[in-house]
Amino acid sequence: MQFESEINGKMLSVSIKPDTSTARVNDLEMPYQLIRQDNGRLLFRTGTKIYKIDNITIENQQVSFTINGAHVESTVKDEQELLLEKLGFASSAKHSAGNILAPMPGKILDILITAGDEISAGQPLLILEAMKMENEIKAVSDGIIGALHVKKGDNVEKNQTLLEINPRG
């Protein structure tokens, strides 16, 4: 899994290999172990050091947490977002309430909502298959699903309107 993270203005390239329990942060490769505790805390161990991670909140690309009691805020891009950037496609996060556009050509594998549904920012709306990868298209704002312009099995082009989100109220 590939990620890019910005913490306090510093960019980090992160590659995680769960099968070998190794991670690479920039040019430093390290073994790691991630332990989930019943109270919601994560313990991150690398070498002889253990870090306590608590208070994790995720909203779109913004991730905040405390590590050993120190508050950290980060912007994180996952593999899909990095691939879209590399290929020059706009991320669906750039679209707000209104029309949700296809970020790339592909095929609609599943539609997870129906017209009239109330949705929240970050909620999965549909699954778009592109380049043999399943891409979850998420809501970027709260609202109510208006018109659906696609159905399961449809092939779509980049920037084709997939659905409309109407503001609440």
Write the layout of secondary structure elements.
Layout: E1 2-7, E2 10-17, E3 22-25, E4 28-31, E5 33-36, E6 42-46, E7 49-59, E8 62-67, E9 70-77, H1 79-87, E10 98-101, E11 106-111, E12 118-119, E13 124-130, E14 133-138, E15 143-148, E16 155-156, E17 161-166
Antiparallel strand pairs: 1-2, 1-9, 2-3, 3-4, 5-6, 6-7, 7-8, 8-9, 10-17, 11-13, 11-16, 12-15, 13-14, 15-17
Describe the fold and architecture.
The chain is built from one helix and 17 strands. A hairpin with a 5-residue loop joins β5 and β6 (42-46). It folds into two domains: 2-77, no CATH class; 80-166, OB fold (Dihydrolipoamide Acetyltransferase, E2P), CATH 2.40.50. With 169 residues, the chain is mainly beta. It is elongated and about 55 Å long. 12% of the residues are buried.
Task: List the strand order in the largest sheet.
Answer: 4-3-2-1-9-8-7-6-5
What is the number of helices? 1
Total domain modules: 2
CATH superfamily of the largest domain: RNA polymerase II/Efflux pump adaptor protein, barrel-sandwich hybrid domain
Salient structural properties:
56% strand, mainly beta, OB fold (Dihydrolipoamide Acetyltransferase, E2P), 169 residues, 17 strands, 9-stranded antiparallel sheet, 5% helix
Short description:
The protein has about 170 residues and is mainly β. Helices cover about 5% and strands about 55% of the residues.
